[in-house]
């Protein structure tokens, strides 16, 4: 799962750099699916629910940061 998230983050960062306007929808779709996984895992009782949902939350945050970083880098380019 970790390798898959890393690949998604890299692809999203490249997409955000090349096509910043069109990168929002894939980013939101990825984050939506990760949020759904987090909600489902969080339904486990007590501490187990928090432990199971944490990878989904941190992955969603990483996807958001990589998309924002690609768009921010594109804004800073001189062309």
Write the layout of secondary structure elements.
Layout: H1 2-18, H2 24-41, H3 47-76
Helix pairs in contact: 1-3, 2-3
Summarize it:
The chain is built from 3 helices and no strands. It is 82% helix and 0% strand.
Describe this structure as you would to a colleague.
The chain has 79 residues and is mostly helical. 82% of the residues lie in helices and 0% in strands. Helix 1 (2-18) packs parallel to helix 3 and helix 2 (24-41) runs antiparallel to helix 3. The model has no long low-confidence stretch (mean pLDDT 95).
**Helical amount among residues, as a percent range?**
over 70%
The topology string of helices and strands comes to HHH
Instruction: Give start-end ranges of low-pLDDT stretches.
Output: none
Our measurement of the CA-to-CA distance between the termini, rounded to an integer number of angstroms, reads: 36 Å
Major β-sheet annotation: none
Shape descriptor reads: elongated
Compute the average pLDDT: 95
Record field, number of beta strands: 0
Structural class: mainly alpha
Question: What is the number of helical segments per DSSP (H or I, 4+ residues)?
Answer: 3
Report the C-alpha radius of gyration, rounded.
Answer: 14 Å
- Beta-strand share of residues: under 5%
């Amino acid at each position: 799962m970790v390798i898959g998230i890393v690949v998604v983050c890299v692809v999203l960062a490249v997409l955000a750099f090349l096509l910043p306007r069109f990168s929002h929808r894939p980013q939101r779709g990825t984050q939506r699916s990760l949020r759904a996984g987090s909600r489902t895992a969080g339904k486990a009782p007590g501490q187990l629910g928090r432990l199971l949902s944490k990878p989904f939350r941190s992955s969603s945050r990483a996807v958001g940061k990589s998309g924002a970083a690609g768009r921010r880098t594109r804004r800073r380019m001189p062309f």
